Amino acid sequence: MAFFGSRAGLSPDFPTPPADPVVTDVTTEEAAVRPPTGRLLHVTSLVKEGDSVAKGAAVACLRHAPDICFSAPVAGRVARISLLPGRKLSEIVLFREDDSSVETHDTGPATTTAGLRRLMQGAGFWPWLRRRPFGGMPSREETPAAIVVMAADTRPGAPDPCQALEGREEDFSRGLAALARLTEGPVLVCVQSGTRLEWPDPGEDRIRKVTRGARHPQAAVGICVHQLFPAGLDAPVWDVHAEDAAALGTLLRTGSLPMTRLVTITGAALRESRTVRTHSGADLRQLTHRIVAPGQHELMSGAALDGHVAQWLAPRHRQITVLPRRPARNRPHWLVAALNRNASGNPVIPSAALTQAFAAALPATPFVRALGAGDDETAMKLGLLSLLEEDVALADYVLSEGGHLKDQLRAVLDRIQTEFAA
């Protein structure tokens, strides 16, 4: 995994076999409705095991905000409903059936902002939005200070969002106009330099195109938010993928929310890489069947930098990574481990790679040290509130075994959120 330096960001090289240029459509035989990344959500199930549901139909809603629904990514039969203590959503598994039924919604009330919100929440679009600070989807009545639409992705192996928008420019423009109605601030569309992405003028001056570089993390959402419109405790910033913005435009035009998304399958444990059109909650085992090389491997939803081992494609992910499983290492005796453990953590060594791991967008070394020391005030001044775990994943990779930035960042964010809500 070599690095190729640049003046703004890095290009981590993760081995992967050559890709099949043909994009195939795949609907997996099993699919799961999963909550977005963040705090666990208390839900009310709207279906029972054995029920048949149409594609896009609501299968659960938030207990304290029943207008916000989670929708079925495929038409099928409910196989299993898994709830954690407190009726917190774990997963709702569906068996696909040969049923072309699709849930449709009345778009008439969407002419008002309140009606647009109700449509987005009832159709299952709301969980596709993410707020900063703290992460998770926005609350029912929240108004963002700005919205960032990501039409660029610099993570290794990521699909080109502009490819997913080909032929959907009208719906993309319609979706951008709808998002602009939810905020009084700007709607910033981030595109990669050299990309020719154009869409019909939605007639809204607050929608602006912003060019980002080709090296990671220049198109990491948190870096974009920090540089373009920093999030604050009283000024939340939302982000959404460009393909989802186009899906919102399709919802307004047809009354049905598209569930498909462009996904790449990469990794060193594959015989060939692929790009597929599939759906949220897709079964990773079926998507990688017949293309995995012999030997033990791990299926990850997301990129090699910030993904996690999973069975289902996470709600916001557009990458699947298959890596060889590392052999288990012998654990040292507990006394030896205790003597070798540094209770205060390893010191951060300033380096050019660490600075570039944040695309030189913020003072990397002071920020990392503030996270390690639990210095909430300094971390906030340096840009903490615009970032989430995925935005520091490259810095963790640069620090190797000495990096625990994702855990440290989450601990600081949770502490600030608790104090802010008190």
Structure explained in plain terms:
The structure is a single chain. The protein has 422 residues and is an alpha/beta fold. The protein has twelve helices and 18 strands. The strands form four sheets. It has a six-stranded mixed beta sheet with strand order 1-15-14-18-16-17. It has a five-stranded mixed beta sheet with strand order 9-13-10-11-12, with helices on both faces. A four-stranded antiparallel beta sheet has the order 2-8-7-4, with no helix packed on it. Strand 5 (58-62) and strand 6 (69-71) form a beta hairpin. Helix 3 (169-180) crosses helix 5 and helix 9 runs antiparallel to helix 10. The longest helix is centred in the last third of the chain and has 17 residues, at 405-421. The protein starts with 18 loop residues before the first strand and ends with a helix. The relative contact order is 0.15. The model is unreliable at 1-6 (pLDDT under 50).
Runs with pLDDT <50, length 5+? 1-6
Give a short account of the largest sheet: 6 strands, mixed
Overall SS class = alpha/beta
Give, in spatial order, the strands making up the sheet with the most strands. Answer: 1-15-14-18-16-17
Q: Which sequence of SSEs, written as H and E, runs from N to C? A: EEEEEEEEHEEHHEEHEHEEHEEEHHHHHH
Q: Average pLDDT, to the nearest integer?
A: 93
How far apart are the first and last residues' alpha carbons, in Å?
45 Å
What is the strand tally?
18
Number of H- or I-type helical stretches: 12
Strand residues, percent = 15-25%
**Could you estimate the helical fraction of the residues in percent?**
10-25%
Q: Name the overall outline.
A: globular
CA radius of gyration: 21 Å
